[in-house]
Amino acid sequence: MKYSAKVMDHFSNPRNVGTIENADGVGEVGNPACGDIMRFYISVRDGRIEDVKFQTFGCGAAIAVSSMISEMARGKTLEEASRISNRDVADALDGLPANKLHCSNLGADALQAAIRDYYARNGDSAKRRAQMPPVPEKRRQESCKCPYCDIEVPRGAPFCKKCGAKI
Amino acid sequence: MDHVAAAPLLPEVLEAMMPYFREHFGNPSSMHGVGEKAEEALTQARSQVAELIHARSPGEIVFTSCGTESNNFALKGVALAYQNKGRHIVVSSVEHFSIMHAVKTLEKMGFQVTHLPVDGTGRVDPDEVDRAITPQTILVSVMHGNNEVGTLQPIAEIGRITRAKGVLLHTDAVATAGVIPVDVEALQADLLSLSANAFYGPKGAAALYVRKGVRIHPLLDGGIQENGRRAGTENVPAIVGMGVAAEIALREMDNRIAWARKLQKRLQEGILERIPHVVPLGHPVERLPQIVSVLVEYVEGESMLLFLDMENIQIASGSACISRSLKVSHVMLAMGIDAALAQGSLLFSLGKDNTEEQVDRVLEVLPPIVQRLRDMSPLYKKAARTFRSSSDAGSAGPDPRRNRS
């Protein structure tokens, strides 16, 4: 299992690690039993993400993903930032190993959770919320890679249809 | 410091193997002189391996291709040979995947399997074995030493029970044979798996000890190699290497153990001294000399591994066999360790060529790596707040083990 040079760069020198005091939005995804937690803090000014910081517990991929999306989101409008997908982040990192693509690639979900938190705090209209992509949890449930044979299996499937391994 | 995954080949072992790739390339089953030479080499290797585990006769050694094959062979071979006597098998819940998955296959074939619990150190209680055995039981399989936490099992005590009840005992000694003394008579084991690459032999050679009189059904059907128990042309060079490595292991064992214990103590005590919130794993006394297995709280294992690799220090997190599956170790879960905490596993397995300087280097570079990752971790900040209000500084943190009654 090899990481790209870009992943290793963002892993060993992660950008924007930390917290923001009095952040305008905070979002967290993942849980420790799965091995990855990402928490994002954003400060917003005139509809743009002025500053973004994160804290991550997880593997090399999880840390690199957090760092990369924090760079991608900075300076973008909330609409632009919420359109960044997990796939965009993986592409910007020159790809991730197949078995990490779905499990550690939660950066976009965490950022969107922070943006949703911002909207919720500011009592924004339903119209704004309608422009948000669908709830990431649902999107993530579509499919996952079998960690043993690297084929796509439906999210929530009890075992891999190819090799029979329990998932 | 990842010798449990693979140990480097000894130069003298490679040298002994080389002629069997070149001039003595023959098939041991052939009747001519070239084949005979290979046959002689197998006979010698069989004696060397038998001696390593104090088997009474070299005929009790069956060569296989790897530890996984030996374990599969022991379980499935005994199950098929004794299925008319009974269809119940007992294993521990901390076995290697080659046992865990082999019994799953046997369950699909209609065998019943009991998984024995372990305590917080990873040890099986022999009384549990006693209770688990039914008139239907044909085989008990408990590993000798655990590859992830280093805990040794009370095999001799279990052997007394199985012997008294007329049930066969298999032990997976892949992590122990060639590393610490293994004596099939003292352990009262009827079958025992061992692998060459645990003791500086080549990959591709392993063995199953099958006590004289124990019936076993072959996994591979074909010719009458290995006395009809394992068909297929023997991997002569690797088997020769295994024999030589076994002989050297037996000769150097006391020195290797003393050295490993020294490094183990230095490394484990050093880590616990320098890094707060670290939990040592495994039995404090009954354990392999070369393993140091710890859980680092609030940090995930792989990120520590990557930073250590950049410092040219190679270790493992959990077992190499399953690291690609990204799953929490079943061994740690069976020991009652919280799944989140098990993510922070670091597994050092020391070798004879590791030095005190190397250990000191780990002790120098690891604490800043852990601190760096903890500073990044959302769990650490939360935990740091709780600790300030609830406990004295420098404590080992909360007990990772769930209460077990």
Please describe what this structure looks like.
The complex is a heterodimer of chains A (167) and B (405). Chain A has 167 residues and is of the alpha+beta class. Chain A has 8 helices and 5 strands. Chain A has a 3-stranded antiparallel sheet with strand order 1-2-3. In chain A, a hairpin with a 4-residue loop joins β1 (25-31) and β2. In chain B, α7 links the parallel β5 (168-172) and β6 (191-195). Chain B has helices at 11-17, 33-52, 67-82, 97-108, 126-132, 155-165, 184-187, 236-274, 301-310, 330-334, 339-342, 356-376, 378-390; strands at 61-64, 88-92, 112-116, 137-141, 168-172, 191-195, 206-210, 278-280, 291-296, 345-349. Chain B is globular and about 70 Å long. Chain B has 405 residues and is α/β, with parallel strands linked by helices. Chain B is built from 13 helices and 10 strands. Classes of the chains: A alpha+beta (167), B alpha/beta (405).
Quick structural gist:
The complex is a heterodimer of chains A (167) and B (405). Chain A has helices at residues 5-12, 60-73, 78-82, 86-92, 98-101, 107-121, 126-130, 136-140, and strands at 25-31, 36-45, 48-57, 143-145, 152-154. Chain A is of the alpha+beta class.
Attribute tags:
A: 167 residues; alpha+beta; three-stranded antiparallel β-sheet; two-stranded antiparallel ribbon; 5 strands; B: 405 residues; alpha/beta; seven-stranded mixed β-sheet; 13 helices; 10 strands
